[in-house]
Design brief:
single chain, 211 residues, alpha+beta, 41% helix, globular
Length: 211
């Protein structure tokens, strides 16, 4: 029998499986992006109901399988459930998780990406910067972590973000022109890098059309 292990991570996405179970994609410090099955998580009062939700950060006890893991225990460190109370911030957090899921891989530690998600969720809750600016700054820093952001000929606001440690990714207050420069610059890099559009972008475009 494979020995159980504890990992620290954030739930990127959750889908229903069968009548009572859930399938989670979790970004972890140690193992990178992994698939975790939470058996019985959809049953009322199940011990995994609270942890088997997107944006949950905590420690997960796992039983390894051939290509996935089974959840056997969990300790929630931070629940970002409040993000679900505002549709644009919920969609923005979902976008950041989806983009992270695209770039990360199993077997490659995800400590930097995990820390970036954490400070991004905090920024979304703080509401000091607009969700659009937060998404752009997140995308810039994530691309830099993954070695995908070209450092030459960047707007000043992009240069600032690239130069900051992860914890200070959102330590700026851009003027309108700088914000637009940031949004356009990261969009251009993402358009060249991504193989397919993010599903959450459709929701964000719909919200923008309604505003």
């Amino acid at each position: 029998m494979n020995e159980e292990l504890w990992v620290r991570g954030i739930v990127l996405s959750v889908s229903q499986l069968g009548e009572y179970d859930k399938r989670m994609v979790v970004l972890t410090e140690q193992l990178g992006k992994i698939t975790v099955f939470a058996n019985g998580a959809r049953r009322q009062n199940n011990r995994f109901t609270a942890v088997a939700m997107s944006f949950t950060m905590g420690r997960f006890r796992l039983r390894p399988g051939r290509q996935s893991y089974t959840l056997t225990g969990a300790e929630i460190e931070k629940s970002f459930l409040k993000l679900t109370e505002d549709v644009e911030r919920f969609a923005s957090a979902s976008y950041c998780c989806e983009l992270t899921e695209y770039f990360t891989r199993e077997g490659l530690g995800g400590k930097d990406e995990l820390n970036l998600l954490y400070v991004t969720f905090l920024a979304l809750l703080e509401e000091r910067l607009s969700p659009e600016v937060i998404r752009a700054a997140f995308g810039t820093k994530l691309l830099d972590i993954e070695g995908e952001y070209p450092h030459e000929n960047c707007p000043a606001v992009v240069q600032y973000i690239l130069a900051q440690p992860i914890g200070r990714t959102f330590s700026f207050e851009p003027k309108e022109q700088a914000a637009q420069d940031l949004i356009r610059a990261v969009r251009k890099v993402l358009d060249r890098t991504l193989d397919y559009p993010m599903r959450s972008e459709e929701v964000l475009r719909g919200l923008s059309a309604m505003s």
